[in-house]
Amino acid sequence: MDVNATLLIDGNWRSTPIGSPVINPATGAVLTVQANAGTGETKEAIAAAANAFKSWRATSGFARSEIMTRAAALIGARAETIGRTLALETGKLLREAIGEVRFAADYFAWFAGEARRLEGLSGFGGRAGGQQLVLHKPLGVVGVLTPWNFPVSIQARKIAPALAAGCTVVGRPSELAPNSVVELYQCLQEAGVPAGVINLVTGPAAPITEALLEAYEVRAITFTGSTPVGKMLYTRSAQTMKRLALELGGAAPFIVCADADLSLALDQAVIAKFRNYGQSCVGANIFYVDQSQYSAFLEGFSARVKALKPGDPLQPETTFGPLINAKRVQAIRDLQKAGEEAGFEHIAAAPDLSAAPGAGLSPELYFPPALFAAPALDRVDQAFLNQEIFGPLAYVVGYSNLDELLDRLCQNPLGLAGYVFSENTAQALRIAARLELGITGINDGLPSAANAPMGGVKDSGLGREGGHQGIEEFMDLQYIALGKPLLA
Fold first, then answer.
1. Around Cβ 101, how many Cβ atoms within 10 Å?
2. Is the pTM of this model over 0.70?
3. Catalytic residue numbers, as ranges
4. pLDDT band at 129, cuts 50/70/90?
5. Mean pLDDT over the full length of the chain
6. Which CATH superfamily does the domain covering 7-248+461-480 fall into?
């Protein structure tokens, strides 16, 4: 199989002599062979971005907005095509994949508007009596490093504000899911993004990341992935004083209060836990259920887990497909064993792949979602509750003292997302405010939105993406003081 031209450098699509396969996790088939960028290709991409920055930063916000508006329309129009590519390379349900691409279009539409609203400050009052100006200026070249679980929407969430701010980009998608990102960049090209403003390098992470870290021309790196890698980038970026935006691991608590609407909580629990088969940094981690609701919640959740259907991710009747690779399967097996050792009892599981119709699916990466429970907080190991599950294992714990639960949750070093279910809005808001998290959904298992800031606190990251705050990660402030008044 030929190596595809998956490198975009200075407006040209290129290949490399050696590539690496992109695998369909549902079947084990090789979909394509991606080009493997090394240090040399990455340096070329950085140079192209640095050169293009000179003109892109001078392009008006209105002109950038028009290009991004066209990009949003193209991405939305091709959502089904790009979504199918995404589903094939990740194993994600087709309907979820199409929804992800449409969400990516939302980011470009939102930040197209923000590009028109870039503002500075001005005033009088300097010591010399002249005018004081504060300018917002684009940082420069931005390295964009993204994972495989939401390859298109996370790229969009980072690229769109960078372009709106006037920055240029060198992007690197996960080698597990590059094809849908290639199609995203093709949309940006067709929308009129100039050569060199967006550059894409595919292949193994090490040489690409190293080149981005070493280059002084790269003034910012935005990364979504694990906390250990984020901390490495934080340390290494200090050598060239890069700006960092890090969206890292999470251990999202899902709290069901005594007065919660149980049916709503259960329906949203399935979304928050099993979207993308639990392979989501904001996915529900542990379900903490008030003792008065514990038995009923467990019964309802068990029925919903058993009703999940394995199969081909492209078919509408399928509700769960494969994990991304064998490494994740082994990690989930290890977590299941650790959970049992920590005090959880197995309650229910979905059917395995033998119950699924259709030929050609490979069972190796299919792991049936499963439900585990413990009746009280003091029955389980706190260390297990604090770690990220990142897979289709649901753990339910009963609690009787809300204050004690919240104290425990605030001791977790991870603080990305969480969920609170209560019919008392005032109580839910108090709980949300007390939790040390970047994102909280109240009676909502899917709170992400392009017009809202997303990001974590503590070991879950730095900075925000989305909302009007998202563009600030890619801008510097410059203060200018005039010695003489303009109107003198």
1. 26
2. yes
3. 247, 281
4. confident
5. 96
6. Aldehyde Dehydrogenase; Chain A, domain 1 (3.40.605.10)
